[in-house]
Amino acid sequence: MSSRAILFLTNSELGQCNVALAVAEEFLSRGEFIVHFGSFQELVPLVNDMNERLHCGHTAQFHEVPGPSMEDLSIRCHIENISHRPGVRGTIKGYRKIIRMMQHWTPSEYLKAVRACVALIEELRPEIVVTDPIFQPGLEACQTTAVRMAVLWPVPLKDVVIGIQPISAILGKYPVTGSGFPFPIPWNLVLSNAFLILSAVLMIAMARPKPDISLDGRRPEGKSAFPLIQAYSKRSLNLTPAFKELDFPLVIPENVVSCGPIVRGHLPLSVADAQIDAWLTKPTILISLGSHAPLTESNALQTAKGIVALMTQMPDLKVLWKLKFDWQNSKKFNEVLGKDIEEDRIRIVPWIQADIMSVLDSDRIVAFVHHGGGNSFFEGCKVGVPQVILPQWFDTYDCATRVEWLGIGVHGSRAVAPDIEAEQFSKALRRVLTDEDLKCRARAVGDLCREEGRVNAYQQILEFCTKSKSD
């Protein structure tokens, strides 16, 4: 067995850890490194699932990092979801939610997490640590130990390099995350954009964690998670799923490498879910929204009405909808979609058994409706399918702006986000299904993304290790 080790330090939420799991799969299948994961306990089922599905003779080893996950923090501070409206007021409210969550990470908890990551690095002595850009204990541990580090970003290039763009462009060209502003920013929104940037900087600078409860008049030893560590640095390798063609024009340094969409290996749909494969007999719209902000009955109804309006005009379609909502017990919902569900034109499931990529790669999906998360955006790009974005928070608003600027999709709820309105949604669906130029652009993006990003990431990490040794 190889004595070379690689350590992945990541948050446990799927939106953050999915790229790490994808790259780890590549390392495991090659067998040249012992693969380790350091994260919160919630990641255990995902690592176990990865080990079981690979059958390559090698398994990743999990090491628990103590502390609350982002989901734990949201529960602790009573934030049911992180959705917010775009624009100045809505974005400020969104920033406050995230900072409030981080403030509930007590100094003693944060210090324990950092020390656990440092101890892992010192014990395992990995050849390289691959870290999640928002996993603060991992970033701090890498800085403390000066270990060779790669940052594996699950997001487009803008989120990686925005901090090193010309200041004039930061303030007046690129829409600040969460704002929902168009690109490039029109003159009448430049001051609003600059105000939001300044507000975010000040809120982070002034943030302080909630203190630990004192015991016997003394507080336990601790360390603040603030100020938040900036993940990008010139000395580390930065890997992103994006190509420059999939984002706004940006200044990109040499140590930021575009790998292409980093998705996990997946089985053909006929193997992964034979039932769904057999059902996909017509062109199908796939709807898969994020789990961080489940649909309310009102928004589920509006989505359903939008689907009905479309299928009245385009009856030769099917819809596969991943929906975590108790629609069976909603009289209003069944009044709208009951007939189509009975006729099996629309199939609603709480979870799709197969990987989303297995469904998308079936060549029968003609439109992909999602919330605008990085993973979903890159999955849509990978298969060259037009996208309809129903954004709800932060970077998902960027995604809606991005797909329209690239000409590969449509913002499906511009006037009402984070809510959904039937007529807007129906029009967005109709456009991506009938606009030949848009469909052609989406296919061209799919052609660009044919290579496997996880393989490119694997190769880049190996080259970085070799180059670092020789320097």
Any chance you could write out the topology, listing elements then pairs?
Elements: E1 5-9, H1 14-30, E2 34-39, H2 44-54, E3 61-64, H3 70-76, H4 87-103, H5 107-124, E4 128-131, H6 136-145, E5 149-152, H7 157-161, H8 167-172, H9 187-206, E6 237-240, E7 256-258, H10 269-272, H11 274-279, E8 284-288, H12 297-313, E9 318-322, H13 331-342, E10 346-349, H14 356-360, E11 365-370, H15 374-383, E12 387-389, H16 394-406, E13 409-411, H17 422-434, H18 436-448, H19 453-470
Parallel strand pairs: 1-2, 1-4, 2-3, 4-5, 5-6, 6-7, 8-9, 8-11, 9-10, 11-12, 12-13
Helix pairs in contact: 1-2, 1-19, 4-9, 5-6, 12-13, 12-17, 15-18
Number of helices: 19
N-to-C span:
27 Å
CATH topology descriptor of the largest domain: Rossmann fold
Main pleated-sheet profile = 7 strands, parallel
The neighbouring-strand order within the major sheet is 3-2-1-4-5-6-7
Number of strands: 13
User: Which overall shape is indicated by the principal axes computed on the Cα atoms?
Assistant: globular
Radius of gyration: 22 Å
Strand % is 5-15%
Structural class: alpha/beta
| Percent helix range | 40-55%
What do the pLDDT scores average to? 93
The first-level CATH class name of the largest domain: Alpha Beta
List low-pLDDT spans.
none
Number of domains: 2
Q: Under the CATH scheme, which architecture of the largest domain would be assigned?
A: 3-Layer(aba) Sandwich
- State the fourth-level CATH superfamily of the largest domain: Glycogen Phosphorylase B
